[in-house]
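$ ./design --mode recover --in tokens.txt
reading tokens...
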């Protein structure tokens, strides 16, 4: 069976490097501007830190050229955003037309070709060429005047931190690009009566560019039932190679038939997702008619391939998990659907145990997962097969998107993943331990005041900056809880934000 990675390739995506200038300076200077820009964009393109292509584009010197390149960027399938830099002064009224129509994310790079002032040689020619210190301010004004979101990165283009910040932004842009026209499928509806997982799908499609549509569980069951025996055999063999199967799930074991059933569900789900070109799915244990088990290992493995997933009809988290997987493509560590499950309130050692009924992505596993079967306790279905594992410690975060009615809010809490000190021999699910920053009491108070969901995407390899950049692109509210969070200020932030969004 081919392991179909549903994530696109970062290296197929392009960010266009656009340098602004004007005709005033004459041929000689403009030639230099072009040379320098090409050198900077190539250096970024060749940087191992940046996964996408950075494409040099000819220097723009007039409103017509600026408009044309923005129009071209809008319609280019591979262009996920623009980096703009004003090597010289580029009168910004020239930019209004282009910026008005631009619908791709923009990063404003405030750099200069020379790192240092050449003290002994500097003359007026140098001054006329190296003007970003004021040229970029003119460009910044017009973007602020037009109320356009962007990321501003300041520093010399060879500075490691500048390259790192550009990489972060390109990853957010890749995620944003993935959402445009993206399709997510919902089997069944929302879990009955649950509030936070629900929301306005029309508004989400207008704001985020992805669509969420429901398919009856019967449509999926039909595809599952078309699965052939040899395909099932093959997948069971893969299970036995990749995981530590418990004895009862091995060939000849008492519950081998359940493993085959789980494999059949996985194959059917994958076929359904591929046929519909879906980027993720959600199901609900309240609507599984015709399915014998809730998809456990299937959801876990499809997530590991790059599909978005969340339980109980939570389509916003499905999209978020997919987004974060695209953004983190190629990075060490993983991203998974997560739920704050149970607390450890030991004074001075407070932490959260995160898990779900079944569906935690093996991309965050610290070890070869065990493959086990246990009763679920709710839902009234046959025992589902699932992967069980622990998760490594280290810096991580939880992210949640909620629908506040008049806006979407992206909430991020930086956490410290904790290596478990105790065995959990009776806990039959994958689990994670973390300490939320700045501390349990402040973090949970802030999260609850902000209305953050119990469902999140847990990330080991994205930073708050990735998500902040993303929120700017999407034009949504961004709320961060980290080591600097202080409740008095935090409450005010929420209060003022509420007012800002009413205006
Ligand atoms: Mn849940």
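writing sequence...
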């Amino acid at each position: 069976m081919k392991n179909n990675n549903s994530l696109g390739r970062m290296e197929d995506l392009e960010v266009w490097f656009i340098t602004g200038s004007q005709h005033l300076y004459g041929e000689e200077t403009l030639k230099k501007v072009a040379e320098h820009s090409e050198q900077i964009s190539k250096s970024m393109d060749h940087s191992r830190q940046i996964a996408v292509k950075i494409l040099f584009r000819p220097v723009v010197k007039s409103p017509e050229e600026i408009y044309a390149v923005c129009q071209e960027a809008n319609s280019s399938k591979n262009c996920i955003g623009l980096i703009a830099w004003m090597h010289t002064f580029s009168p910004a009224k020239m930019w209004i037309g282009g910026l008005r129509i631009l619908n791709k994310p923009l990063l404003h790079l405030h750099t200069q070709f020379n790192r240092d002032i050449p003290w002994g040689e500097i003359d007026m020619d140098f001054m006329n060429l190296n003007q970003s210190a004021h040229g970029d301010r003119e460009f910044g004004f017009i973007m602020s005047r037009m109320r356009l979101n962007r990321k501003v990165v300041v520093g010399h283009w060879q500075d490691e931190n500048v390259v790192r910040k550009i990489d972060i932004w390109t990853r957010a842009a890749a995620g944003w690009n993935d959402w445009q026209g993206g399709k997510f499928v919902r089997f069944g509806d929302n879990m009955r009566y649950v509030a936070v997982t629900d929301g306005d799908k029309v508004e989400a499609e207008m704001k985020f560019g992805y669509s969420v549509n429901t398919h009856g569980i019967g449509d999926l069951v039909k595809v599952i039932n078309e699965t052939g025996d040899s395909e099932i055999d093959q997948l069971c063999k893969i299970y036995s190679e990749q995981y530590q199967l418990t004895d009862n799930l091995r060939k000849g074991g008492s519950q081998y038939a359940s493993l085959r059933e789980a494999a059949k569900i996985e194959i059917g789900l994958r076929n359904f997702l591929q046929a519909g070109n879906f980027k993720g799915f959600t199901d609900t244990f309240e609507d599984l008619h015709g399915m014998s088990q809730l998809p456990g290992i299937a959801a876990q493995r499809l997530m590991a391939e790059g599909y978005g997933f969340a339980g109980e009809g939570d389509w916003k988290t499905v999209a978020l998990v997919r987004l974060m997987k695209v953004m983190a493509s190629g990075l060490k560590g993983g991203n998974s659907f997560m739920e704050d499950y149970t607390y450890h309130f030991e004074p001075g050692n407070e932490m959260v145990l995160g898990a779900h009924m079944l569906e935690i992505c093996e991309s965050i596993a610290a070890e070869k997962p065990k493959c086990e079967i246990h009763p679920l306790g709710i839902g009234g279905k046959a025992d589902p097969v699932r992967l069980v594992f622990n998760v490594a410690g280290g810096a991580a975060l939880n992210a949640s998107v909620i629908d506040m009615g008049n806006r979407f809010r992206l909430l991020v809490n930086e956490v410290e993943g904790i290596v478990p000190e105790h065995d959990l021999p009776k806990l039959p699910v994958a689990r994670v331990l973390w300490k939320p920053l700045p501390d349990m009491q402040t973090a949970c108070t802030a999260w609850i005041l902000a209305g953050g969901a119990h469902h999140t995407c847990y990330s080991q390899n994205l930073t708050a900056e990735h998500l902040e950049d993303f929120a700017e692109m999407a034009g949504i509210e961004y709320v961060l809880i980290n080591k600097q969070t202080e409740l008095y200020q935090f409450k005010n932030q929420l209060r003022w934000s509420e007012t800002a969004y009413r205006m």
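exit 0
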